[in-house]
Amino acid sequence: MHREELRAYLDSLLESARFKDYCPNGLQVEGRGEVRRVVCGVTASQAMLDAAVARDADAIVVHHGWFWRSDDPRVTGIRRRRLATALVHGLNLFAYHLPLDAHPDLGNNARLAHHLGWRTDGRFGDQDVGFLGTPGEVRSAEVLARRMETVLGRGVLLVGDGDRPVDRIAWCSGGAQGYFEAAIAAGADCYVSGEISEQTVHLARESGVPFIAAGHHATERYGVQALGEHLATVHGLECIYVEVDNPA
Question: pTM above 0.70?
């Protein structure tokens, strides 16, 4: 598959043009023209780049790419090493941030719900990135948290009323603690995200709506996995998911 064909397909599939984001979505670094083998992962770290080189990949597809709005634009140090690895080895770097959070089937939030057995029936928050639904059966926030630990394979932090029954659940993967008030306004009995901030603790205690912080990386693994599987099925590409451990 040619690089430009893959770029057009991914941009269309994930509707990247409709999102206002903190980084450019799509092809961030241009590599070789033909793409046969793709390494997929959460973040375009040096470890991910090295894994792609070791597997003789033509492209990397990630959720967290480069060139964030607040970045120092100078190409030095870590940034130079990463970019040099991509350019020397002809790697194409594709990154999709909010588009991969929001996709109704392949996105991080959709796939997180799939793995946890939650049913989606609504959206909330800026650009409809947050998801609303039911946890499959009425259960307490504490039971939900323990179930998440089993599925995600890591500890989670539950703040607030763990005994509260959860009929309506809201979630947004990654660092979406800023959507907590919007989730409460949307009628959630519990809110799940990857990270928690100091002020979020007080909001959970005072609102009576518990907050579960399940890990930024852990809540954003499933979207890029599903996207890789999709590319393999639809386009016959060899797609390899690489897990670079991250406790945050």
Answer: yes
